[in-house]
Amino acid sequence: MINIDTVNIYYGKKYPVVCRTVFNIHKSKGNKNNDISNNTKKNIIFIKNENVKNIQVEFLNEKTPETNKKVDTSDEIFAKVLDNLLQTNLYNLTEKKKSQFVVFVQAQYNDWIDFFHYKKNKPKDIFMICDYVNKYLQLNTFMSFHFLTLSDIYIYYEMYKFFHTINGSTNTYITQYKNIFRWFRLIQSLLQNDDQQLNAYLKDKLENAVEGKVVTRFPPEPSGYLHIGHAKAAFLNSYYANLYKGKMLLRFDDTNPVLEDIKYEQSIIEDLKMLGLKYEKISYSSDYFPLLQTYCIKLIEMGKAYADDTSVDEMRNQRGDGIESVNRNNSVKHNLNIFQHMVEGDEIGQKNCIRAKIDMQCKNKCMRDPVIFRCIIDIPHHRHQYKYKCYPTYDFACPILDSLEGVTHALRTNEYSDRIEQYYWFINTLNLRKVYIYEFSRIAFVKTVMSKRKLKWFCTLICNRIFNFFFFFFFFFFRLTLFCTNNLLLWYVICYL
């Protein structure tokens, strides 16, 4: 055993969740103090230090202070040492007699660390990770053996933000990777504790949030009135901005003139004021259209976008089946020429759209060459009238504007989970500043409708029914009156004769 009295674990922005969990398991086994062993009092202390990049461990000995030393390490690496100090049998398995079990469990843990470090460099890799882990768990209850080990704890926290649920909510990861979710709930039940410090870190925290520098945004489309679902999104953006003493932006996503109207924009501003929500400034996606066209040209010049005149139905079928468009490999010069026709809104431009060239074989169908620009010439924009002939899609404009406007954390409902990979593809391909995405569950009520599209359809249907009812009522009343009037005149004629 290492001859020490106290171990100070200093951490910076990232909390040492694996080490803390090992420490909690040690306490749960009967040692309620912070002792490393039951024979000698040796303390484990977690201390926050903003100057520490990952974690720094300090070993102290009161009798021989000259042997005290500090070591820079990482959470997952020092967890192995801590397991040995606290004898929690999660990595070293001191209670297990067969040495081959020890070697296997330790090798598995090191392999999982290397796997995640190698794979999670890019946002799209999370789907590859989930595919692999989900397949691995098809015939396994735990990650390394038939009991809880350090591998389970490490992977649990790597997967936490994707599979953690609040009030029974679900997201794309939970429904798509059921084996992982089954395992996740098992580990969650095994790791339950009353550690307020750890639970506070895991609860409602924004990734890499710095006090005073957090910027959120509420980006409604002015195509309808706000409902309670929008209010939830607005309140969450405001809450986190205030929590970290940052600011919230209000940006109108006016990229589709077919649905938008100035009356909705004014109503949204009035509703936010009524709710008592304050924002730093108002911006409009349409004010960035020239810049977004520049970024579209940049993608075309990079060979990452192309013009396509495939019909809507055929394109939908091709994306579903993973079939590439015949225009996918057209020259950059040809694509730039077509895009210029789209900007001018002429006959050639109206037949085309611009699609991002990503991966038509990707399992995430949102990555199968989505449309990023399309022509709309016959409907005026409610702010710019007929100034623009082609418009960017929301999926293209959103990540670019989030990055350019200084947004640090984009809060989105989990119905957009499958679009996160696409969001980061635009960020990375255009070499823009990274924006962190925080997902929350979409609000839903029993026996009612929250979708703005469905509400609009319902209101339109009711209005039409009411109009038809009064129309036929007055028509019937008019005919009845006319009939009675004619019969009355006929009766007067008969009486007179």
From TrEMBL:
What does the UniProt keyword field contain? Answer: Aminoacyl-tRNA synthetase, ATP-binding, Ligase, Membrane, Nucleotide-binding, Protein biosynthesis, Transmembrane, Transmembrane helix
Domain Glutamyl/glutaminyl-tRNA synthetase class Ib catalytic stretches? 213-459
The record's Pfam families line, in alphabetical order, gives: tRNA-synt_1c
| One biological process term in Gene Ontology | glutamyl-tRNA aminoacylation
> Mind telling me which residue stretches traverse the membrane in this protein?
469-494
Family matches, as SUPFAM superfamilies: GST C-terminal domain-like (SSF47616), Nucleotidylyl transferase (SSF52374)
Family indicated by similarity: Belongs to the class-I aminoacyl-tRNA synthetase family.
UniProt-recorded name of the protein = Glutamyl/glutaminyl-tRNA synthetase class Ib catalytic domain-containing protein
